[in-house]
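Researcher: Quick one. two chains, 584 residues in total.
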Amino acid sequence: MKKYYVGYRLATTIIFLILSICALGPFVYLLIASFIEDMSQVFKNGLSLKISMDMLSINNYALLFTKDNGLYFSWYKNSLIITIYYTVVSLFFSSLVGYGVTMYDFKFKRPLVVIILSTMMIPLEILMLPLYREMLGFGLLNTYTGVVIPFAVSAFAIYFFMQYAQTLPKELMDAARVDGCGEFRIYYQIMAPIMIPAFGTMAILQAMTAWNDFLWPLIVMSTNRNFTLTVGLQTYLSPYGNNYNALFSGAVLSVIPIMILFLANQKTFISGLTIGGVKG
Amino acid sequence: MNGHKNRHYYNAVKKAPYFFTLPFVISFVLFFLYPVIYMFVMSFQKIESLESWSFVGFNNYKRLSADIHIGSAVMNSVLFTIGIVVVNIVLGVLIAVGLNNKKTLFRNGFRSAIYLPALTSIVVAGIYFRLFFAGGEATPLNRLMTLLNLPTREWLYDTRLSGIFVLVVTATWRWLGTNTLYFLCGLQSIPEELFEAADIDGANSFQKFWNIIIPGLKPILIFVGTTLVYGGLRMFGESYVLWPRGNTPGGIGVTIVLYIYKTAFTSFDFGYASALSVLLFICLILINMLFIKFFGIGKQEGRA
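Model:
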């Protein structure tokens, strides 16, 4: 029995070490490569890098400031603005809807719930062409609003707030009503503050979604200056000129904000992610 | 006086939910219902430019049957979906069982490590895996192949299956962490007494896995399986970053959505691309109905 214990620990530790290396290897590789100026190695041999200390330099990071007049940092700015814009708008509206659907009984409640859930099943990819033409019609191509607004009232976020709202104390609502408090004041003065943990979790998840989003910004943003980080970095994927130098350092910098957000809020992050799975 | 106030109060409670849910209704009409209808309309149009178009009846649909690229794209998407479902479920469950076992060392550390790739964008994954699967003799992967006495490959451009392999590995790197968390969460909801009872009955690890863990995970397995099927069939980013512009011999790695994207935004054939979208839309609805019929997805939530 004891021996089995040691054997189990040895085996699982080795297996998990290998898995962790597979998972983290790309991060380590990108980080190292971002400090190497001579990229000819990369073209020839794929991943192989021969590293010696004297090869390391921060020139790839300096390059981000000079390449195309610091285009990279306009992408960074765009991504930041879109992420904040999307997170704020989607939290505001999705929480209202999720709360309203759960806390009240009204005529169209059931059909509404069914519609909310079924829109979660149809992916954006199907609707990208009509949505593109619609954005064109609204004059929203190449704008932040064009990237944000079609998905701002997110069914996933609504579903999340619906789950959370079920735990809210309905007695408080009646008490407030007796005191003459209006329905919207009940929401933003009493109920919304109780839902702050839900806002926190959802903010992190929505921020991550917006920051890493690729297809929709690729469609909406068509001029260099307006690209988001993901769309912009992708244009450096061709080994032309000094693209790769900027690609590696740019990729490293692009991962950092989400990494910090995750490491600072690991618990919230994980509990938020799994809520759909547990209930579904 | 009092009666008036009561009626007002009653009205407010009656009306409030409609105001609360109004944002969704507006968004649904503008960014879902209208686009769905518009997609059907566009699929009957020939769109020369954004200003000039004409209705061409079923022309776009007639073209579907003669298009040799569709078969290839559907094949890629379906094979990718099968690959991603099998790999993510098998690895995800096994990793979760390992992480859930109290005898395993450094559980939190390993969990975080395995989850971290899920935080990155598809572009970051694409940078790495394009190099990982590069064709040179000296790449680590091809050196391993030589070591095993296997032929080296130009992985990205070799065969359809090598392309699928590359896609599954790239996608799994980013997707596995989240799926593992789902399974881990599911495992933690299995009551401890079941395992204790099994120990008393002298069940071995395999019996426990098969008779307690798998049935206990059933709802999560269905949930993860469903999201993987949808995620697989709609996959675009992995394919786009690995093969920019999607010009590959025999359509290696070009999935349905990438093909639709190319048709619309590279060939500017919006009408035909819309017909392709309609086809995909109908397929997804059918799959959706199958899932509901067999697994009852949506029934539970419908009660919420």
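Chain A is about 75% helix and 0% strand.
Researcher: Thanks, that's what I needed.
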